From TrEMBL:
<dbReference type="InterPro" id="IPR014710">
    <property type="entry name" value="RmlC-like_jellyroll"/>
</dbReference>
<protein>
    <submittedName>
        <fullName>Cupin</fullName>
    </submittedName>
</protein>
<dbReference type="InterPro" id="IPR011051">
    <property type="entry name" value="RmlC_Cupin_sf"/>
</dbReference>
<dbReference type="InterPro" id="IPR014500">
    <property type="entry name" value="UCP019307_cupin"/>
</dbReference>
<dbReference type="InterPro" id="IPR047121">
    <property type="entry name" value="YjiB-like"/>
</dbReference>
Amino acid sequence: MAQLVEKQEPLSFRFADDGLVPNHPRWPMLVYPGAVPLPDDVDPAAVLEDIFSANGWGDSWRDGIYGFVHYHSRIHEVLGIARGSAEVRFGGGKGKVLEVKAGDVVVLPAGTGHQRLSASADLLVVGAYPPFGTYDLCRSPEQHAEALRTIPEVRRPDKDPIYGSDGPLLAAWSKLAA
């Protein structure tokens, strides 16, 4: 499946803490538009699952994106769009709205807010996580103070979820990237 991946530099987005969504204090959200061409003759979700798994990102799921603002304070997340399209606000209320479509991959450092605003009827997303961290779902103001403490403690993954050991994530999320 790795042969399907088209090597590219990701788009990079940084978001400030908006009082509800902390976002990550150092590392940007990375977007790889059209990074994974999805052939018609295979299960597109399986292609994404295989690529993420081969690069050490597991505990994958297939679903959509919640329609409420939320973030994860104890783990990073990758979202691969297997089918359809969606408008998603990243970074919380003062963040950025992007359209994501089949073949796009978005890597969210811990703390990055995300919310589906609209979606095609056939939207299918594959999510996965690095091999460390603890899944949580944060969406209330009461969780903000604790999230500010836990987000910086989530270490950088050893591999980019689609490009592995030499992927752009490693430089973008280095200790020097601030």
